[in-house]
Amino acid sequence: INAEYMGITYPLQLAQNKLRVDRKGEVYNGTIDCVIKLYRTGGFFALYKGLETKLLQTILMSAFHFTVYEQMLKLLQQLTILLLKKISGLLKKRSTVRIG
């Protein structure tokens, strides 16, 4: 889903980056103007220049997030087990102590 989204929105992201570089508005008069000029000067593929790098970045970040998520989930499961064992031990001690 993320790749399809990126395929649709990437030309707009590219235009926004070019507009940031062109701060004074000397080359472009807005996002649509930028997209049109990119298309006219470089064709369809000019709208996706640099997409490979962005896709690689997205893949690497997704892999990183997934790895961190999985490791944190394992850690939380281990901590939960330790906590439950500790609580169980405390409850057993309390039930064996008799008053009076």
H/E topology pattern: HHH
Query: What are the low-pLDDT stretches, counting only 5+ consecutive residues below 50?
Result: none
Structural class: mainly alpha
Largest sheet entry = none
> What is the end-to-end distance?
67 Å
What percentage of the residues does DSSP assign to strands (E)? Answer: under 5%
User: What percent of residues adopt helix (DSSP H or I)?
Assistant: over 70%
Q: Estimate the global geometry from the Cα principal axes.
A: rod-shaped
List the total number of helices. 3
Rg, nearest Å: 28 Å
Query: How many E strands?
Result: 0
Query: Residue-averaged pLDDT, rounded?
Result: 90
Task: Give an overview in words.
With about 100 residues, the protein is mostly helical. The protein is about 80% helix and about 0% strand. The protein contains three helices and no strands. It starts with a helix and ends with a helix. About 5% of the residues are buried. The mean pLDDT is about 90.
